[in-house]
TrEMBL record:
Keywords: Methyltransferase, Transferase. The lineage of its organism: Bacteria, Bacillati, Bacillota, Clostridia, Thermoanaerobacterales. This is Methyltransferase small. Residues 31-169 form the Methyltransferase small domain. InterPro entries: SAM-dependent_MTases_sf, Small_mtfrase_dom, tRNA_Adenine-N(6)_MTase. Gene3D superfamilies: Vaccinia Virus protein VP39.
Length: 248
């Protein structure tokens, strides 16, 4: 099950575990926050764009019932880890991993087939001059294989009318996010800002959009990671300990 440089981490949720490689991009808190932000209905078909080692599909499957999740990952070796993570967690009947570019996936899977699309995409615009020593890190962090507009456009095509799109991104890209959602017929419905500390400005944003919806957005209460004593807030601890996604 394990290859050189890999380890198994416990996700502390319903016995779920995940294989990660020491020298490749590892999931962060943003993936946990996004998976908690998602809510599902029984029978939902869900697709995660840029799934990495499969953390979001695994958490969603672990927190919901009778859903099917497809993960799409462009890096062959990372997709291989994701596939083994599905096997490790006995979720082969509920999760499928596809090794492909998200920009090709509509042609492969078809339009308007999914109830929910999720993504924790690369945050940084593609630029020259970044550290080229770790290709996996660069692909995960920078928009090398598709930018924000590609992820939003693909999500819109995959979603059924009335389907929901959930994204976590950097807060300084919020204008870009809303602009691209609107031109792709995805109307922002909920926005939640994530702050490292109570006194600090937000650095992440969680966005829910709905395909074909009327305008009107709810700004949710802020989510704080650390309290004034430098410890995790009660809400964050509850997110890490949450075992179910609230269903509609």
């Amino acid at each position: 099950m394990l290859k050189n440089g890999e380890r198994i981490d416990d996700l502390n949720l319903n016995g779920l575990k995940i294989i990660q490689h020491e020298n490749k991009f590892k999931f962060g808190m943003d993936a946990i926050l996004l998976s908690n932000f998602v809510y599902t209905k029984r029978g939902d078909k869900i697709i995660d764009l840029g799934c990495g080692t499969g953390i979001i599909p695994i958490l969603i499957a672990g927190k919901s019932s009778n859903t099917h999740v497809t993960g799409v990952e462009i890096q062959r070796d990372v997709a291989d880890i994701a596939k083994r993570n599905v096997v490790l967690n006995n979720l082969t009947d509920r999760i499928e991993i596809i090794n492909d570019d998200i920009r090709n996936i509509v042609d492969k899977l078809g339009v308007e087939k999914y109830d929910i699309v999720t993504t924790n995409p690369p945050y940084m615009p593609h630029k020259t001059g970044f550290d080229k020593s770790n290709e996996s890190e660069n692909i995960s962090r920078y928009e090398i294989n598709g930018g924000l507009q590609d992820f939003v456009k693909v999500a819109s095509k995959l979603l059924k009318f009335g389907g929901k799109f959930f994204m976590v991104h950097r807060v300084d890209r919020l204008v870009d996010i809303v602009y691209n959602l609107r031109i792709c017929n995805l109307e922002p419905k909920k926005i939640r800002f994530v702050h490292p500390y109570v006194e600090e400005k937000p650095n992440l944003v969680l966005v829910e959009a709905k395909k074909g919806a009327k305008s009107g957005v709810v700004i949710m209460k802020p989510l704080y990671i650390y309290n004034r004593e430098g410890k995790y807030t009660d809400e964050l601890l509850s997110i890490y300990g949450k075992t179910t996604i609230e269903e509609e």
